[in-house]
Amino acid sequence: MAEGLRDDVARHNYSVDIATTGRAVLEAFTSYDLILLDTDLPDLDGVSVSRAIRQTSMIPIIAFASADEVDQVLLLETGCDDCIERPYRSRDVVARINAVLRRTAPITSPVPFASPVPFASPVPFASPAADLDSVVRARPRGVPPLAAVGEDLVLGEEQGQLIRVGNRLVIDPALREARLGGELLTLTRKEYELLHLLASAPGRIFDRTELMIKIWDYPAGKPVNAQASRTIDTHVSSLRRKLGHRDWIANLRGVGFRLDVPGPRRGGRQAPSRLVAADPEEAPRHGWIRAEGAIESA
């Protein structure tokens, strides 16, 4: 099976080598640009291999997994960028490889970002952390700053600055790190990108199609299927757990998701809260009053 897949992928101008054990993968992965990881290895399971790689590198990983949702969740939580269910078609594998490499390739020009308000100057992509392996080319998705409109101020960050949501959540785009109450959150690549996107406009609703296009490079115009929806739900659920409160990410059923700051509840609903910069003098233009409305949690 591995030889057949290698030949199919090689026909699309990729150079492919086969490692037959998990240990062989761990010894050689720094020489490659992407890993196709089978979870059924003779010495180590795929989850252990993915976790070990993520301790030192952000090299893209695509895992082959069973249809069991639990297996896929474990692989995604340990750092895999994508999962492909077995049995698979070679052309689907090649399409996923192309999509992942597009997302992680160096970008020299800003990427337009759909916004409900006009935005100012775009922000270049931040560089990956300096201590990552030299083969890493993963960069956060570009998010231009949002400008103030009328009396409502929307969070907008310039290069090198932190994204602050409330007085506890801080995101550092340059280091691809997120801290909650000063504690570093352990996030997978996709979890970080999802949190970064939601935090770029707290209170703004992102529908499933937009999330799939921006985070998973889903084809524009293609309806979001059940598997894609499960992918979003899995990552949202994992993020909520790591943030320690499900109300950080509100699910407006049938509409989309938005980032909120958990606050006191009244009658089973979250009370309106104000999002402000941690240091008003350092960033006086930050802060945004979110719209009131009923929130439903998934």
TrEMBL record:
The gene is sibA. PROSITE patterns: OMPR_PHOB (PS51755), RESPONSE_REGULATORY (PS50110). Pfam families: Response_reg, Trans_reg_C. Keywords: DNA-binding, Phosphoprotein, Transcription, Transcription regulation, Two-component regulatory system. GO terms for molecular function: phosphorelay response regulator activity; transcription cis-regulatory region binding. Residues 160-261 bind DNA. Residues 1-101 form the Response regulatory domain. It comes from Streptosporangium sibiricum. PANTHER family: REGULATOR OF RPOS, TWO-COMPONENT RESPONSE REGULATOR ORR33. This is SibA. GO terms for biological process: regulation of DNA-templated transcription. GO terms for cellular component: cytosol; protein-DNA complex. Residues 160-261 form the OmpR/PhoB-type domain. The modification 4-aspartylphosphate is found at D38.
